[in-house]
Design goal:
α4 packs across α9. The protein is of the alpha/beta class and about 250 residues long. It has one domain: Rossmann fold (3-Layer(aba) Sandwich). It has nine helices and eight strands. The chain has an eight-stranded mixed β-sheet with strand order 3-2-1-4-5-6-7-8, sandwiched between helices. It starts with a helix and ends in a 15-residue tail after the last strand.
Length: about 250
């Protein structure tokens, strides 16, 4: 049974026929892992916490820098130099003290990915580099964990939901990472501050829909948003039969 406090907190959600008390209980029992607590992770984590996701895991080995504050809304100027996951936990706990926030003050690596991801129902990829995205994707395919991908650059963002065994994976979308010369570090890529917020909210929306088993997910579809023109469009993405991660040639 939901407590009186929970009914009050989540009232505007519970009165939705697609949610109800049954759906809210699903959210409270769910466990969602976020890879990264930067721009995408800030928005996604904040709304997942507000919605009542019972356990939110945060993976990030970085410390807060002043240049992060233009878009990473989980953090504050007074916390400069602090671990991002510790700063994020402070903000999320202040918003919703009823949920559990687990922190992993480390970057995702081949050595820890399986250990961390196994405990969660789904993964929201809010990372900012190709190495981490490929690793997260491969681990999610191996463990059969849903993964919600998001990325931003300049004035454009994109998102896709990956259901292993159902639709294409990230490796189907990008079989090869760009060459070394084409990839800049996150510090060298400009981004409009509000853009990660919008894409992060889309990722959170997909996560909530998956948990509630409501609506149509972005499976096999890449959602692309252009902020300059204020345009959304979708690209159909096919599962690659010979994909080295999810296909017949998987390693």
């Amino acid at each position: 049974m939901l407590t009186k406090e929970q009914k009050d907190r989540y009232h505007r959600q519970i009165i939705l026929p697609e949610v109800g008390e049954k759906g809210q209980k699903k959210l409270l029992k769910s466990k969602v892992l976020l890879i990264g607590t930067g721009g995408l992770g800030s928005a996604a984590a904040y709304y997942l916490a507000a919605a009542g996701v019972g356990k939110i895991g945060l993976v990030d080995g970085d410390r807060l820098e002043r240049s992060n504050l233009q878009r990473q809304i989980l953090h504050q100027t007074s916390r400069l130099g602090e671990s991002k996951v510790v700063s994020a936990r402070q903000t999320l706990t202040a918003l919703n003290p009823e949920i559990e926030i687990a922190t992993y003050q480390e970057n995702l690596t081949a050595a820890n990915a399986l250990r961390i991801i196994l405990d969660y129902d789904l993964v929201v990829d809010c990372s900012d580099n190709f190495v981490t995205r490929y690793l997260t994707n491969k681990t999610c395919v191996v463990t059969q964990k849903p993964m919600i991908y998001g990325a931003v650059s300049h004035f454009e963002g994109q998102a896709m939901t990956i259901l292993p065994g159902v639709g294409p994976c990230y490796h189907c979308l990008y079989p090869e990472p760009p060459s070394g010369d084409a990839v800049s570090s996150s510090k060298e890529i400009g981004v409009l501050g509000v853009l990660p917020g919008l894409i992060g909210v889309i990722q959170a929306t997909e996560a909530l829909k998956f948990i509630l088993q409501q609506g149509k997910l972005l499976v096999g579809e890449l959602l692309i948003y252009n902020a300059l023109n204020l345009e959304f469009f979708k690209l159909k993405i096919k599962k690659t039969p010979k994909c080295s991660v999810c296909g017949i040639n998987k390693q």
